[in-house]
Amino acid sequence: MRAEQTTARRRRAVPWAFLGLWIAVIALAGPFASKLADAQQDRAVDYLPAGADSTRAAKIQDQLPGGEATELVLVYHRDGGLTAADRDTAAGQVAEIGQAHKLTSAPRAVPSKDGTTLMYPVASTEPGQDEKARDALVDDVRDIAHGKAGLSVDVGGSGALDTDAGKVYDSLGGPLLYTTAGVVALLLILIYRSPFLWLVPLAVAGIADYLAMGVAYGLHEGFGTSVTGQSSGVMTILVFGAGTDYALLIVSRYREELRRIERPYDAMVAALKGCGPAVLASSGTVAAGLFCLLAADLNSSRGMGPLGTVGVLCALAAMLTLLPALLVLLGRRVFWPLVPAFGSEPKQRRSLFSMMGSSAGRRPLTVLAGGAVLLGALALGALNLPGALKQEDSFTKTPDSVTAMETLAEAYPERGTQPITVMTPEDRATAALADIKGTKGVDSAERGRTAKGWTEISVISTSAPESAGETATIKALRADLDGSYVGGSSAQQLDLKNTNERDRLVIVPLVLAAVLLILVILLRSIVAPLLLLAAVVAVWGASLGIAGLVFEPLLGFEGTDPGLGLLSFVFLVALGVDYGIFLMHRMREESLAGAEPGAAALTALRTTGGVIASAGLVLAATFAVLTNMPLVQLVELGFVIAVGVLLDTFLVRTYLVTSASVALGRKVWWPGKLSRPAPLSRGAAAEADPEAVRVPAP
Questions:
Q1: Average pLDDT of the chain?
Q2: Left if phi > 0, otherwise alpha if psi is -120 to 50, otherwise beta: which for 67?
Q3: Residue 596 and residue 583: Cα distance in Å, rounded?
Q4: Which of 123, 237, 359, 427 has the highest CB neighbour count under 10 A?
Q5: What does DSSP assign to residue 574?
């Protein structure tokens, strides 16, 4: 009797204890979560590779008087040709800018050969490293430099591009969060068909996101973790996407247990025991994969690793503690109108996944071969991906800075329109300047500031920004100038591309090894983990192939973000393995219960197929939210991951992994004990060999 009373008190106390704990946690995290937006940095140097020339040049510039220079280009243009009044207007406005702001030198007009355009390069150290001061400078310059009838005036240059990109990132927080929450809410309503149940996982995901923001700010303050608009946005996507996936699995298993266990508390304990290992392993693979990004040389990728890991772990903690507590406290009525009554049986109906499993089970090798050919054919589309994305092509809607760069490219085809910055030791500045002027592809060069043993030299190329000619000039300068660092906007883009290639070679094997280790521990097998990894790698290739058929031909994107391959690989492998874990873990449960391999695979698909499909739709939808953002790199990342998750959910998990498991039979669990034939019962053994089980006469 006393034991029953103790158990009853525990049933009442534990959910309330977890709820109280989360209230305390959120109260503590609140002051830090609100500061994350202030910690966000979206200067070019915050994305640059740590050891690259352009990064070192930018850091040296920060030490010069006034700090890093904000470089702008004022572009005055009239289609029919500039008039004398236009030139007077331009000169007057530039003089007004010089009086209002501290410029590094007096701006000089550079007319185009066709007489339609006048360019004024302007640089100021007034903002230094302060992004808000930079944005204020750019906005003020744009207010002063305004056009008149027929005369267009645009402000471009790296400073204006950074300001426009920063404003886009600053605007992402609210819309991204609200859109993600709205998409998840709609899908949960459709999945649960309940007016109340969808609110519980959605509210828990929102609380997890708030906690993740607080922890991310703590990492930034305590360890200097880089926080960018891209990394904080992806963290929110992961919290809602991965967190809702875990919620779907837990709620589905909880509903199942409520039909055979009377008390909600006991049903939840049974549900967590059943699906808890799969949820833990799933989050472990995502966290491990993202944590591998710490090995990246690229600042933005390296910062995304800890933030993404924090998002996943906060989602995991909330879904394993707060979600069960709320569901237990709300009781069965939260499922209304489809309440799972104790002792009831779910309606038996032939599901889509039963039919898919049956087709995979009848001809597993044919299904497997057909799927492999399809994925391989789709992967060929990756050969059609456009080249590296240029900075001015990064926006889905053309801002003022990009319009300026496009005008300059047409009006000055014979020369560069933004400087290459060379930081050279002060005692070698004269010789370096002479060497620079003698370098092939250099149009002009002039000395700038000198301080702390370094001299700044501004170089203009004969080729357009980020063209093959300018890239060759940057490489030549780096090869010829020992002890100097070559930076500037174009050099930064070149370093981003090269560093992403290096990071892929380092991080891809790390991710595969980390995920494989977790799968081997969970599944007690080598073949099954290798099968799952091969499947997600094939999905990644096919997703990039589909992107190659869509990005330029249909969406008109002029380039591909250099980091797309690496980031999409990390996310698709880590997140895609989730569904394999859900499926394989249930398959292992069925096999341990005595089911034959083929029957275990089909039962696992029938019982988890609906959950996997729901989870896949939610995760794909959350990443698809990024395709509505105004930056091409976010659109590309969201598209590839969303397509990959859908391929993984409805083709790879349902058909290919199931058919491969059926074809391999017990070998899928090699070398674990499940790979060995089950021992025959006494009756079955007697039937197979009567002599072997004959009892000797006394």
A1: 84
A2: left
A3: 16
A4: 237
A5: H
